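Structure ticket #2291
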Amino acid sequence: MWGERVLLVLWKKWFSSPGRPAVSPIAGDKPESVVERIQQGDDRLRDELIRSYHPFILKTTSRFCRRYVDPARDDAYSIALAAFDEAINRFLSDAGRSFLGFAETVIQRRLIDYARQEKKHSEVVPYSAFDTESADGDSAGNRLEVAQAMDAYARERTAEDRKAEIAALSEELSGYGITFGDLVDHSPRHRDSRIALLKVGRRLGEDERLCGMLRQKKQLPIKELCEGGDITRKTAERHRKYLVAVGLIAYGTYPFLREYIGLDHDGEEATS
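Resolution: structure written out below.
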């Protein structure tokens, strides 16, 4: 886990003021061109690029966490910093998307991984919980009681997190005139259709250009989504509301819903 020491090292490396030039060597340059120069070996620009996009990294992290993020204290911010650095190394200029769009996707993926890992740790019952004995020595009964309490807490926390995600998605969908009742009526019935539509919806959410068209115009870019040949225009129009919902889940910060609808494992919904 990223701790305070790692965060402070990153903070000092990327945001300390001593020695910083009065004029940024990347001022006026597009981030794509700066990243290309870094990848070609001009690594002195890396720290400057990260410093320059500190507000972007902070905004992306805060939006994911849905709260104010303190760069000097939050582990989530150190994860985002490392993800931005990872994006610099992995970005492909000929892939047809902007660097910032790619970096945002990488940051969100790493924060989702971090959130899942934190949740996993929080649900583990510590061994020390099983070492406590009651006054009459009934340690077995006490261990069972502790385990049951921890299990109930984990289920309650998961249910609350899911409820919060559903409420947030419901509010976002309302901007498109879509309700959860609509999704029931417009969801694909067959497994093959569901897998194909999930694939297209995921591409919609992860493609900055296509998702930008959806979010700005509040309209599904059907023509562009059908160009890959995964679905026909008729299918896309029939399941328009479903595709919008999947695209928003893939784009946004909905780890539970993402897992539930099967975005990360070939369209098989979770059963829990």
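Closing remark: Residues 1-23, 125-139 have pLDDT under 50 and may be disordered.
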